[in-house]
Specification:
With about 210 residues, this protein is α+β, with helices and mostly antiparallel strands. The chain has a domain at about 150-205: Nucleotide Exchange Factor Grpe, Chain A, domain 2, CATH 2.30.22. It has helices spanning about 1-40, 45-120, 125-145; strands at about 150, 165-170, 180-185, 190, 195-200, 200-205. The strands form 2 sheets. Strands 1-4-5 form a 3-stranded antiparallel sheet. It is elongated and about 150 Å long.
């Protein structure tokens, strides 16, 4: 029994010795290869590696410089656009004010005519002349509206159109042909450059 145990122990120790020798041999080979590689590194190789490192660092610096330039360019463009937006908004407001001023200035002569007519009404005895004066003022007002793109919507006698007219009421038509047509206009409608700014308020026959 002891002999058998001793034999097994001997085999085990033999295997352990072989494993250690193999590991030592592998380590020795690795160290030798590393030593050979180190010994084979020439000054030229070292210079080449240094150049590669310097080149990489230079590229990084160049990239950072370009990035800074792009950021600066973006900030400049953003500031310029903001200034452009503010300037355009200011010009638009001024243009609107100028347009309103121009319209009101053109309307003042009509108001002058009304003032004169009111003054004359207190002393005039010729109402025919007064009527003619009022008609002249009315014609002048119509010309003013036309010059500014305002045009009356024709409604009287026309077929009722919901795109143009607003029916305030309906009444029985005296004639069959007046059914569905405008028989009276209570408030005129107007276009501004072909855009409706006020619908005609009308009475429709039925």
């Amino acid at each position: 029994m002891d002999k058998q145990l001793n034999a097994q122990q001997a085999v085990k120790e033999d295997k352990e010795d072989k494993r250690k020798k193999k590991e030592q041999k592998t380590k020795s080979v690795g160290e030798t290869e590393e030593k050979i590689t180190t010994e084979r590194t020439t000054p030229e190789d070292k210079n080449e590696k240094r150049k590669e490192t310097d080149s990489t660092e230079a590229k990084e610096v160049e990239t950072q410089v370009k990035l800074a330039e792009l950021q600066d360019k973006y900030l400049r463009l953003s500031a310029e656009f903001d200034n452009y937006r503010k300037r355009t908004l200011k010009e638009r407001i001024e243009l609107t004010k100028s347009a309103a001023e121009s319209v009101l200035t053109s309307l003042l002569p009509v108001m002058d005519d009304f003032d004169r007519s009111i003054s004359i009404m207190e002393t005039v005895s010729d109402y025919k002349a007064l009527k003619e004066g009022i008609n002249l003022i009315y014609a002048k007002m119509q010309d003013f509206l036309k010059q500014n793109g305002v045009k009356e919507i024709e409604a009287m006698g026309k077929e009722f159109d919901t795109d143009l007219h607003e029916a305030v009421t309906k009444i029985p038509a005296e004639e069959k042909k007046k059914k569905g047509r405008v028989v009276d206009v209570t408030q005129k409608g107007y276009y501004l450059n072909d855009k409706i700014i006020r619908y005609s308020k009308v009475v429709v026959g039925e």
